[in-house]
Amino acid sequence: MSSITFIPTVFSGTDNTNGGSIVWANPENVAVSDDNVALATGPLFETPAILTSLTLKVSTWKYGGASIAKLIGAGDTLNSLTVSVERHANGSAVDWYVKDAICQQYYGGAYAGTNLADTVNEWDGPPDGVSVDYLWNAALPTTAQVRAADYAFGIQVTMLPLVDADILANIDLITLTIDYTEVPPLGGHQVIRMGIV
User: Fold this and answer.
1) How many helices (H) and strands (E) does the chain have?
2) Which of 2.60.120, 3.30.70, 3.30.300, 3.30.1330 is the CATH number of 2-181?
3) d(C-alpha 130, C-alpha 89), whole Å
4) Residue 1 has what pLDDT?
5) How many CB atoms lie within 10 A of CB 149?
6) Of 28, 22, 59, which is closest to residue 169 (Cα–Cα)?
């Protein structure tokens, strides 16, 4: 088995496929863990009201400049897919929160497969560096769907802001780790692909 961790190179903070209203500012910041974050800000409210963000969608995954399709063969078998999200939430009032709403893969032209959002537990507060893994190891997309140009990941949050609190959902880094088994070509001679770790 082999494993490669990819970073996204295309970003959108305004995907309204799943509804929502709060835009993600600076979505390109999720490509590097450097404390510069993609940010969804809940406005101040006189009375509590649950708000939902638009979907932060990331795609065009690369490892060392090479795409998934370049490094994972069409005949290889996927064992698991893990999206790691380095994140935290900020607020200054009692009872505010940020929670997952959607944490889902996008393939075949739509969000599909299991939604691994934890809609119960609140995001941790600062400091930065809290990383949460979303692991798919069953009911996986096909190898062809993961190798396709439109393969993506989307994350959407709900938040409860109050009158004296701007509620901030912060994401510093998103990565995709693909665990797979290489299928040797006919004849049994295995080709070593550059860039695989």
Assistant:
1) 2, 12
2) 2.60.120
3) 10
4) 81
5) 11
6) 22
Compute the distance between CA of residue 87 and CA of residue 105 in angstroms, rounded to an integer.
18
Question: Residue 186: exposed, middle, or buried by beta-carbon count in 10 A (0-12, 13-18, 19+)?
Answer: exposed
Q: pLDDT means per 10 residues in the chain (197 residues)?
A: 96 96 96 94 74 96 97 97 94 76 97 96 79 96 97 95 75 97 70 51
Q: What value does the CA radius of gyration of the chain take, rounded to a whole number of Å?
A: 18
In the structure encoding, which two tokens stand for residue 109, read together? 């032209």
Query: pTM of the full predicted structure?
Result: 0.90
Beta strand 77-90 with 110-112: parallel, antiparallel or unpaired? unpaired
